[in-house]
Queue: 3 jobs
Job 1
Amino acid sequence: MLIVQKYGGTSVGNIERIDEVAKRVKKAKDAGNDVVVVVSAMSGETNKLIEFAKYFTENPPKREMDLLLSSGERVTSSLLSIALYSKGLKSIALTGRQAGIYTDDIHTGARIDKIDSNKIKKNIKEGKVVVVAGFQGITNNGEVSTLGRGGSDLSAVAIAGALKADLCEIYTDVDGVYTTDPRIEPKARKLDKISYDEMLELASLGAKVLQNRSVELAKKLNVNLVTRSSFNENEGTLITKEENIMEKPLVSGVALDRNQARVTLRGVKDEPGIAAKIFNRLAKENINVDMIIQNIGLDGVTNLGFTVPENEIEEAKRVMNELDASKQLEFDTKVVKVSVVGVGMQSHSGVASKAFDTLAKENINIQMISTSEIKVSMVIDDKYGELAVRSLHDAYHLDRS
Amino acid sequence: MLIVQKYGGTSVGNIERIDEVAKRVKKAKDAGNDVVVVVSAMSGETNKLIEFAKYFTENPPKREMDLLLSSGERVTSSLLSIALYSKGLKSIALTGRQAGIYTDDIHTGARIDKIDSNKIKKNIKEGKVVVVAGFQGITNNGEVSTLGRGGSDLSAVAIAGALKADLCEIYTDVDGVYTTDPRIEPKARKLDKISYDEMLELASLGAKVLQNRSVELAKKLNVNLVTRSSFNENEGTLITKEENIMEKPLVSGVALDRNQARVTLRGVKDEPGIAAKIFNRLAKENINVDMIIQNIGLDGVTNLGFTVPENEIEEAKRVMNELDASKQLEFDTKVVKVSVVGVGMQSHSGVASKAFDTLAKENINIQMISTSEIKVSMVIDDKYGELAVRSLHDAYHLDRS
């Protein structure tokens, strides 16, 4: 098998941890696999460098930030290569440039344009473990770029796609994807498999194992992703295409998103163009709108509701107050969003109504509802968040596989 | 003027120091100069990374070491560029690769092959301060290389040469080149000017301001070097070609080299080939021989003396004992070398005899003597080292300019 392994900051957080990673890589290699490893910076390093830069200015030039921040992954990749060498393996560390990761020139948030994987392939053929500095690439002008948050995951997925790797393992300090947050519901169960789409819904809803960009890219490139822990030997969670999942669960997980605030406009004229006007303006001001609910109006007026991240609510208030439409405004930051996710919903009815029933039984009022093919999201009073998660987890028997 | 400034590890040792460096660069820029800055890694960083690597193996692969160690200068160059930007200057940080520093592929001790200075020139023309990561270059294969000890000085000199800069300022934590070590002789005086050749003799004799490689390159490229402190505003010492020094001093400085051990072979047959045999063998074993003294023999036998660095004496003992010639061997580690250096000696006699006189007056026995056009070196008992330096400093009136 050809395996791409990616180790995050805590997994390479100190020199002993890098040694542990080397042992794990050696195991995979000794088992007869070809292995490409992508590493993040040692945890804390990137933040330290950002602090250094902020000493001088709150808005350091992005090109220089990329040069600065890319150094952390160079350190870990060289150190891991040295660690592998010390264990008798042939290995080579490659920078983003040397690994052929070409990006556009949007510094600090570059997108991968293409991967020239010739150098990686050549080194694999020579029997080497290839260790790639994650998070970074090079522009056509030879400038160093970085990929933004979750960039090393993205490097790993893109490389796995380019190499048509059998597996892309993302190592972090958690065991995988759970049916819900185990800190809220101790009966939460680790999932063996989950589809890309379910993962996308769960990630955007608060499961912080993987950034959506990486899952989206894995889906696009058809990369089998596994998230698992580098701190134990537990099997992780396979994120793959729906067809690869034999028994499709009705519901895979319940997610809680606390970072929500609700905006409601009452008495909006029920005529074309109103919604467009509001949401264009919010987009222009870089306010992220999540759920949007509009119902059929009565007597030519309707209510329009939407949610934004809690930390953007002040900005949203300002914008809404500037708009003509902003006559009867209501803002509420004391809300959370609870979501039930599962590919099985597509072919089974009754999933949504069971969710509403469950919350009703607990006397939890549902303020907003939004559904997609594989998801039901509900905005509720924030004090009921944990209760709602536990009740739903029970209602769908998520503690049993 | 076009000035290349190089700041060493202590000069950029923390974020406040980098801020100080930025102020100094701004001053030079505001005075109407074009400025290229070459920086080392923050002091301690390189050693930390070497320690990390040594955790895994005493002999880490050199290619990976270069990738590892080159990260330190990338950090300081980006941070300095950000600091300059925050002070309203236009600036750009360049890696060794981006600065066009091409080297051979001898990792951890690469030699600069050529400098493609187009990118630097282009950015200077755009009014930018160019900040170059020192110590590093790139091979023709796109591998990252480093230049070994004193590598950042070498980067600065090579860039100054390629740009035909008016001045190359090397900033450290000392004020310049002194007539002797001020810790030995408090009356030691900072020199305003010194020739390349004098500096070469002083450096190899223990003045640690500049590595010889950099002075040799400066001489070859005709670069006017200034060593000065980044911790104060004192004028430094200009190292330039002899023609630029109007009043050539008889003696410029007195150096003490404690890292010396003496080897003497008594009763060596006075016939061709003996010396060649011995020194070829020592060279093959990588033992650095410094002074070599052989005198006319009596009755067909002679004595042969030479010095090696003190830490190589055990190795030298082993080699000498293996050689046929090694019958009457004498080893002495309790010796030091005192040298008197000055371009003026070339045209004035009496400099050497004054040195011998001076030591004789102090009852210091001279074990070995070696002279060059601009230097007289004497090996003496190590307990007289400081006394000899002070007496010679006085004898040549080095406290007065």
Job 2
Amino acid sequence: MRFIHTADWHIGKKLHGYDLIEDQLAVFLQLKEILCTKKVDALVVAGDVYDQSVPSEKAIKATNHLLAQLNLDLKLPLFVISGNHDSAVRLDTGSKWFDYTHFYLKTQMTACLEPIVYDDVQFFMLPYFKLQEAKNYFNDQNIVDLNSAFELLVKQMQAKFLPTKKHILITHCFVSNGLKDLEVGTQSPIDVKILECFDYVALGHLHNKNALKHPYIKYSGTPLKYSLSEANQTKGVWLVDTTKETCEFITLKPKHDITILKGEYAQIASLEYAKKVNSTDYIGIEITDTKVIPNALENLRQYYPKILNLKRLNGHEMLLTNFKQKTLKHLEPLELLATFFEDVNQQKLTNDQLVWAKEALEQSKGESYETTDA
Amino acid sequence: MRFIHTADWHIGKKLHGYDLIEDQLAVFLQLKEILCTKKVDALVVAGDVYDQSVPSEKAIKATNHLLAQLNLDLKLPLFVISGNHDSAVRLDTGSKWFDYTHFYLKTQMTACLEPIVYDDVQFFMLPYFKLQEAKNYFNDQNIVDLNSAFELLVKQMQAKFLPTKKHILITHCFVSNGLKDLEVGTQSPIDVKILECFDYVALGHLHNKNALKHPYIKYSGTPLKYSLSEANQTKGVWLVDTTKETCEFITLKPKHDITILKGEYAQIASLEYAKKVNSTDYIGIEITDTKVIPNALENLRQYYPKILNLKRLNGHEMLLTNFKQKTLKHLEPLELLATFFEDVNQQKLTNDQLVWAKEALEQSKGESYETTDA
């Protein structure tokens, strides 16, 4: 069979205050086209359907409509799990009815032990879960981390492998290729090796499809760029063919891209430069100037209406940040002044300035003592 | 056919801070028994499934479980509309799938124009809606009130009446038997006459089954007492038989009743009295004493752990309230004092007191002037 693997939809997401629902609907329109033109047999969504555990009515309306279109109008089987952003309980509403039309929505850890056979595939659906749930299920409070929990669960899943079927895991977690000590939030990573017994693993959680390099254990990434840090990532979905044992990445084109503009203020705040930029994009701006620029953000908005962020790479504020990061507390007052002056002005104090500073410092000391004595 | 008419479940409701979910589950257990033993063909819920537009996870879990039991396990057709307490959008989740198993969940005003034929009945489902929705639908901004909107909608429904079927309306609104100027919240009442073309009208909104006296246009009321003002109401559901054209009220027994105790403090705060009261009930207490009673609530809780409210019918606070309600601003200071004294002490000022009060008043006037002049 052929299925599309996507994840981390984050429906209802706001980007620096901008409501992304129109962008999301536009990208789902493309997804529907792909599902039809590529003759796909099923859609897999590996968690984080919603951006928030209590989504807005707007987000719920859009999601309900989309899922009904896919499952009831297009008659497409859906395999959807909850992610850490979803409320398992809220998302679960209706799931018992959805089964009847091959819309498998699973929100409980134990769902993975009741695989769903569809076509030539056995789907194991393991939603996002917390360590305590595994401890309770295995009645073992000594399970140290999610990795150990996954080991135990995968063993139980393996025991249910039908030899004539392909075995596909859908899950939402942080899987790592060796960097054991790396942690995303409070989650310890799952060793990719634990999952290698499956024929394909459809992962959700990390937003970058390149977050893990593995031939058949893959993150799909988000369908859209959801932060400035994702500006240079390619977004899309995996088309998985279980017969040919291939997976092909199909890119999705955003309605409004995220673009980062980097350079001198005078250059970026010019009509000539702005003309080359898609004005409807979400824009992140990184200014290299060192001097103070009054009303920079306000002026830039005239060229770029949807600015997400203005960053001063070498500006006063960055210098101050760099300055503060040095160990300052051991400096004598005069050294402190000299360092500050050099950082802000990019030049040393002259001898005259140094003499003047010394005198001023002595004077202020005296005043200070007087004030204290008074 | 035979169906049960219920409404105003308010799942997730809290009563003076007490979570009612256990009481609600207990009463739904009775409802399930009735549905089975009375060989009922369908269940009608006339709005306010939830108590809040954004219900808690606990409330959602309980509701999802209950509805799945009724519709999928007991194979019972369900006819459910949204009420003013529900979020139409949130409640609607899954509704397109529910249709397949005869679970008709309608949250849009226009749903009433697509009646559902089941057995010998045509069900017209008209959820709670706002006047503006009717104005928009009829493209007539001059529709003055809900009553006019209902008139127009009922006309359109009547045009769809199948002559071989019974016509049953399920709706959630304030229907009145003549008292045109009475209003519940901002809602003007619907004239009961508009609805008399139906064979039965299953109403939700008012919590008392006796809120409207009509042979076949009925409120079911809530399945439980949801406020102290409902303490003396009988709660239950209507069993409607469309063949025999009868409706029978079946009472539901609460796990914990609401009881109001009224009398002298010393009597109510006694073991002898408390023994006659079910200690697990929710208790409202009305004390008739006039004197101040220190720590009354605290002392009473030793006898009645779940006190909802303590009311002093003749106590100091009630006297003050009564006192304030009189027109006081026209009284001279001495009259004001005399009235206050009499209200609080239940006796008039003596002559000596009156003389003393006069002197004190004169004295304070003088002081006041001095202070002002200073």
Job 3
Amino acid sequence: MSFRIGIDLMGGDKAPTEVIRGIRRYLDQASEPAELHLFGDWDAAKPLLDQESIPEAAYQFHPTKEVIGMQEHPTRALKEKPDSSLSKGFQLLAGGQIDSFLSAGNTGAMLVGSLFSIQALEGVLRPTMGTVMPKLNGGTGLILDVGLNADCKPEHLNQFATMGTVYARHILEIKQPKVGLLNVGEEEGKGNLLAQATYPLLKENTSINFVGNIEGRDLMSDKADVMVCEGFTGNILLKMAESLYDMAQHTGIQHPFLDRFHFENYGGTPVLGVRKPVIVGHGISGSLAFSNMIRLAEQMLRTDILTKMADEIAGTRKITQ
Amino acid sequence: MSFRIGIDLMGGDKAPTEVIRGIRRYLDQASEPAELHLFGDWDAAKPLLDQESIPEAAYQFHPTKEVIGMQEHPTRALKEKPDSSLSKGFQLLAGGQIDSFLSAGNTGAMLVGSLFSIQALEGVLRPTMGTVMPKLNGGTGLILDVGLNADCKPEHLNQFATMGTVYARHILEIKQPKVGLLNVGEEEGKGNLLAQATYPLLKENTSINFVGNIEGRDLMSDKADVMVCEGFTGNILLKMAESLYDMAQHTGIQHPFLDRFHFENYGGTPVLGVRKPVIVGHGISGSLAFSNMIRLAEQMLRTDILTKMADEIAGTRKITQ
């Protein structure tokens, strides 16, 4: 069966041009491409689709008239613009006509759509969003949450650890991902109240390989693969990490390691813990990012990662109850 | 009047050699050197003092027999080792025989000593510790808290903003320091519960020049000079920033901007909000760091910064009550 991947052609600063170029890149690399469902303005998209020689057989087009702007209020925009590419995508995702949806548009609207159009996986208290973090040894870590949940409880962080582990295993292909609790010191008992209360839960969580506390200096090291924190700290770290690429540009430093902080190349970040793969792209995503987002959606579907996540969450709950 | 600055000769990984070399550097640069009070093992220190040609007139020696190790439990060590260089320093600071104390020894013991041997400034709810943050434009910002207070309330962050402003004005010599609240978005109303509740307090604080929320990407920018957050996030950011220097070493990147993240050169960070200047040095401080720590203590005494801080705190309290 071919997976049906929904793509918002109108989302992102460089839409629709770069989205369609990204589709071209994806098609060039895919041996058995997924069934692409494109949402957007037909008149704007058609010439670009032709220009990139995207065959009509490669996609189904869902014409929409409205566009949700990057600065619009998420909930209001989704409600008031049902005929926007972003709203329509979620409608079809919720209705089962597509299997996954991706957009580099209004992040807030993507999150609201993920949380309310489609539901959380059974047992998941709070869906989360992570971001990859380049390691000095060439590997890749995952930090979560990076902003979906600014205030968290220990049991939320514990579930992030489980979901992050499943993601790291099946998408980052790390066999036995090491889980670290981001904290202010190495020893058990260190930290703010949240970290102190989270540590024992992680220690008892049999779905993960908990290696203890990690510190800010360990983010680029190999100490942990999955790094867990609440979304306030995580979001600030993510944006600081992103700024390292800007720092390199500004200072003229050229080095492949710093290039890896150019996050818009990665192709967006999935919302974890909802029933279907939703990929949220960076506003300034280019064609490489879009092709990577399509591949990520495909990979998440192919590995059936959400079922695996639900199973692990169910297992964790059974043990902790 | 000459200021009396206490120096722990035994604190730090490279003590006492680098401490004494740092004293030499300080004396070489000072036109009217402060009165130095040295705490430590006389037999270990004497040959080094001679080797560095430190004249006997430049210091008073307070011989101590014990040393508090870097890994010892702070409260217990201070209690059980009253004849250690670190304990003795705080005893004389509390007793008024010295005006300031600095050490690169056990950080926890330095903090416990600061909080319990000498008291908080009147009206200060929670003393704090900040760290400087290099800016891309060549300037220097200040982040606080960076670990003294892992859990905070809005009124704590509000006082950190006031104390940070006084420090930035008189020590970093920024005339009208811009204060930013570290947050996950720019707009008022963004953030976790703490940040949301802190924003209005900062807005009403007439002792500071509040410029609104700043994000992780703004840390190295000129958006704010004083960046306020709780000590959990701040500590992780500090250690991540420190690791940028290690990253440069590891990858072989050479650039003056990254050299500025070599924090042990800065010469320690003061505890703000206590009645006397206490400077906490980095464990791996070298002679440059120690000479800078002495100069910082001197500068804090010369500018009478703690009185200014107490005045501003009193003003803020009057307004908010």
